[in-house]
Amino acid sequence: MAGDDERGLYARLTVDMRTDRYADRRLLVRAVVRADMYEERPEDAGARWLPARGTAGGASGGEPSGIGVLVAVDFAPGEPRAGRPGAEERKRALARAAGAAVDALPDGTHFALLGGGARPGVVYPWTGEWAVAGDEPRRLARFETRGMMPHGAADETRTSYAAWLALARRMFADTRHAVRHMIMVTDGSSGDAAAGPDGLERELDACAGHFTCDVLAVGDGWRVGPLTRIATDLHGTADAVGEGHELGARLAGTVRGLVDARLPALPVEITVRTGVRLVSFAEVSPVRRAFRVEAPPLDAPDGPRTHRFRTHLWAAGTREYQIELTASPHGEPLGEHLQLAAFALGGDGPGGAGGTDAVGGPDAVGGPGAAGPAVPVLVRWTDDVAAAETSRFTARGGSVLYHARRTDRVTAYMEGCEAALRGERERAEKLLGHACRLAAGARDELLLTLLDRVVHVLDPGGGVVRLRASVAPFELRRSQLRAQRVPPSPASAPGAPPPPDCPACGAGSAPGARHCVRCGARLAAGAGERRRERGGDRW
After folding, report:
1. pLDDT tens track for 360-396
2. 494-516 burial by CB neighbour count: b if 16+ within 10 A, else e?
3. How far apart are alpha carbons 405 and 435 in whole angstroms?
4. What span, in angstroms and rounded, lies between the C-alpha atoms of 180 and 313?
5. How many Å apart are CA 224 and CA 222, to the nearest integer?
6. Helix locations, 132-267, DSSP H
7. pTM
8. I need a surface site. Which of 81, 460, 488, 517 has the fewest CB within 10 A?
9. Cβ contacts of 273 within 8 Å, gap of 6 or more
């Protein structure tokens, strides 16, 4: 049992996948791993304590500790127009919002305020380095918040997102903070054009592993793509808020969230057996972000390979990760469970503090020096075509189906909002109607709520919607950002019941589904319990 003064979390891993596969060729195997984190040990066994110390990769020299926070404001002064305040009003609103973030900083936090428009720089402290939060530094910082807004015409204050990220990277370069985080507030006045087509991508590659970043967008001049890319690559979130009290509340809430993070970073180790290849690895809940999988060198020795990835800012809650593997049944026994890979959280083997390099060698499947919980990824090859085909529709592997189908409906929603922003009303209604039909069938309450803000839903089951005449570009873009938040799969929850059977063909279905994926028949509530009673597939 960890001491009362030691920060950390109890972690429990579970894996969900379809294990029965027809042994005819090299196949793509998908599995979803669920990581449940608890501040206190759960009553049921299986959770393992992960201490906070020593988990922050990339810090220079010594034990990482404390929090370093940068608050950056990427605003243009702008001109007054209907629905938008002028420069002085924006300065006052911004000063209040930034002041709320400063007030939320606990004593001892290292922080700096960034501003300056075309030439991003440190507004406070005046030394250009770091201030340490306390009564006097917070008072001085609040006084300087008005200087975060640039002066001059809007076209004279434009820079690029890459320039802001480069400044943050330089600020964090020599720090030893366990949490290194940037909060960027932008109205889209910089964009990414000033850095060239590849400038943002190059800077994100340079920043990876050095700090994390949240992006808050205001106004209606920003684009979804660059903000999502920044938040995804730098392990943060992207959202859009109003410029007044809402911005101040979100800034303060983000700072408090950093304080609540009990594990600044955790390595994930995926070890694959000989002959198995890791194709992709991605976080799929609560947000979707892909990790870069390095190809093994041509001269790599035969044997299991361990891929290591760094994850960040863990608090109590649930995350889900999807693994894609290729494996061949050639020469393997039939009807037996075989371990293709192992997923370990919090390993402390070579390179365990982070990185995305793959290390080969004779290490046993399970990961070298894995310190945290681990789960196997199993497959069972069969020569029974009918049995393998039927298992596609059973409860086992429901998390994989859940995330694949949610991606489909979110893609339709995102494309529908883009069409609405371009003024293509007919195409927008067609795409948003398709998203509505899929969301209604899956009982996706989050997406249905977002849809209700941009369309009038006339027939959810039939996908008939009408675009709201009063929907603003800001609301369309904000809903695009929020649609990318992904609730965890109900299929992967500990003790989750099987989803209902189809009364017509007997096939299983994805959790929460209303209609059979095989024949289209409506599903009856409680049918899953009947499968339990007759001894069918279980979770």
Report:
1. 332 333 333 345 788 999 988 888 776 666 555 444 5
2. eebbbbbbbeeeebbbbbbbeeb
3. 11
4. 10
5. 7
6. 135-144, 161-172, 199-207, 224-233, 245-260
7. 0.82
8. 81
9. 304, 339, 340, 341, 365
